């Protein structure tokens, strides 16, 4: 791991807290799950501190149309989750690995819908590169989302299935509805960094039908 001389002070609390985040029982990895990694990439953008999100293409069979952190399965040729997360961010969004300093890795989380155990890798975008969807058939959008937007209580809600089952926290940012695994992890990230602001978890909305239709594919 590279020594981080340029990492800003606003990331100090996150770096200290993130490796020790608790893993709720539903997210504790199954031993036979496939290994994967995602990159939580912090930057200093035109609108202040931000984090990189992608939106998966609506044509995919799994996780279609869902906002996510760049990431995917750890390939045999990858040197572990850090290398996999950086590779995926390059392939999906054009993030130059040489411009990223790795901050830490977070505890593994279980993604039950795809049977993966996911290692979140946090990075500081020391030298930002031009970003764009790297695989148009896989990635529809790449966006730097300001942390100020993520923590704005007006952009936070709880989503539920029309059956009445609550599906967890969500964010409305950058023209995207971020929900599911990514929203749950984002919530932990914001709390670990000390950026979270009080919000109304009792503001509940049904998941839109178009999002439900895409999610039903798997």
UniProtKB/TrEMBL annotation:
PROSITE patterns: NUDIX. The keyword Hydrolase applies. Keywords: Hydrolase, Magnesium, Manganese, Metal-binding. Residues 31-171 form the Nudix hydrolase domain. Gene3D superfamilies: Nucleoside Triphosphate Pyrophosphohydrolase (3.90.79.10). SUPFAM superfamilies: Nudix. Pfam families: NUDIX (PF00293). This is 8-oxo-dGTP pyrophosphatase MutT (NUDIX family). It comes from Actinomadura algeriensis.
